[in-house]
Structure formats: C-alpha cells, structure tokens
Amino acid sequence: MFQLTRAGSIARRYFVTNGFDGVLTLFGLLVGFRLSGTTEFGVMIQACLGAAVALGVSGLSSAYISEAAERRKELKALEQAMLHDLSASEYGQAVRLVPLLIACVNGLSPFLLSLLILVPLGLAQRGVPLPWPPLESAIALALAVMFLLGVFLGKISGTHWLGMGLKAIFLGLVTAGLILLIERW
Description:
Helices cover 86% and strands 0% of the residues.
C-alpha cells in the first residue's frame, strides 16, 4: 500500500517537518520561560503540554484533510482515465487508509517529541533529583532532538549527517537569538 501510493516518503517528510515544528515550538517556550525567570515547573509543563496538544491536533487534522483531498483527486482522475470504478480496488482502499496513517504520523510526531523534551521538567516536579537544572536540561534536550532530526535528514538525503545536524541546531540558536532580541526590545 505504501509503495503503491508513495506514502512512505510522504509520512517520513511529515514526521520530520511537523516533528521539527513541535521541537522548535517547545524550545521557544522553554527559552521564553528561562528569560522571564519563571521557576514554577507546573506552569511550564501546562503551557508546553497545551502547545504540544495543539500541534498534535493541528498536524492530525491538517494532514488528514489535505491528504484525503489529494488522494481522492488522484483516484477520480485515474477512474476517469480507466473508465472504471476503483473504489473496491487495492488502490481505492489505499486512498482511504493512507490519509489516516499520514495524519497519525503528522499529529503524533510533534506531540511525542514534545513529551520527550518535557521529561526533565516532569521529573523535577515529582521531586526526582537531576544532575543539571531541569529547565536548562529540557532546553538542551530540545537542541539534541533538533540535532537528531537533522542527522536523520542527512542520512535520508545522503549528505553529511553532522552538517545537517549542526544546521538544525543553528536554526534553534537563531530562534533563541530572535526571542532574546524581542525580550530586550
């Protein structure tokens, strides 16, 4: 089904794109909390969870709507060219299932990566001692996830993994710099 519809590469692209959106959003929130001097982990976690849920629902719904429309359009064009109803065919089944699978990937990637980044804050809120300050640990974890997403893209594209990982971190640092500029303005 994935080969028939080229859905594997689309799902991979959605995973990285929306996953990076989620990581960068959480990173921005965490940097904002750090600059504001907020120290309440409960407030940070609730705000970040709200953003993660919104990104997940947005990713799920937007990918489903757009993929379902594109797949239906392709099916109609193929049916018109073949002068045959293909709704019961394997391709017709794929047209119905692939948008659901891609929507799940697009919605879950930012949500799950956001939960991963929040682990240090959650542990600190529950009284688990950490070797480093929890907020700074979460920021560092967000940068590490950005790096790994860049490495993943480097592997897929056949380019140097380290360069792609460093580019991803650079984007996070640019974001932090912009937040700092806005905060000081």
